[in-house]
Design brief:
77 residues, mainly alpha, 2 domains, 66% helix
């Protein structure tokens, strides 16, 4: 069964059952906002200060969120 077939079947459920299904699926996913890292808070602050200094000195050029997302999407293709 593919995603289109599953979605078609799921959409035939009553709203309460769809909500329960959605919750079950959601809870099965890992939190996309949790980043496993061995970097301490102190090291992260030092890195942020370093990056800020690089931007202020012109060594690095900041990009917008949209530019970042566009680049990431191109790299996925």
């Amino acid at each position: 069964m593919n995603i289109d077939q599953i979605a078609s079947e799921a959409l035939q459920l009553d709203p309460k059952d769809r909500a329960l299904l959605a919750e079950t699926i959601w809870e099965s996913l890992e939190d996309p906002y949790v980043v496993a890292s061995d970097v301490s808070d102190e090291e992260a602050v030092k890195l942020a200060i370093q990056r800020n200094n690089e931007i202020e000195s012109g060594k690095a050029t900041p990009i917008t969120h949209k530019e970042l997302m566009d680049r990431l999407r191109r790299d996925e293709s």
